[in-house]
Design a protein that fits this description.
alpha+beta, about 45% helix, elongated
Length: about 60
């Protein structure tokens, strides 16, 4: 893949990671319980490519 593709991909994924972490931390601070484990699902969709990618996991509350 091209350098432009790699740079735009990294920029997008960094934005997803940073903004998602901020949103999750804020929600846990506001409504969360210490030590509780939360199921999490993230979905990336590119409609033009008919792509849906889902990642699931767990996050332990602070």
């Amino acid at each position: 893949m091209s350098d432009d593709f790699n740079m735009s991909m990294r920029k997008f994924l960094k934005q997803v990671g940073v903004t998602s972490q901020q949103a999750i931390e804020g929600a846990i601070r506001e409504k969360g319980e210490a030590g509780k484990t939360y199921a999490v699902r993230a979905t990336i969709t590119i409609e033009e490519l008919d792509l849906t990618h889902e990642v699931t996991g767990e996050i332990k509350g602070g």
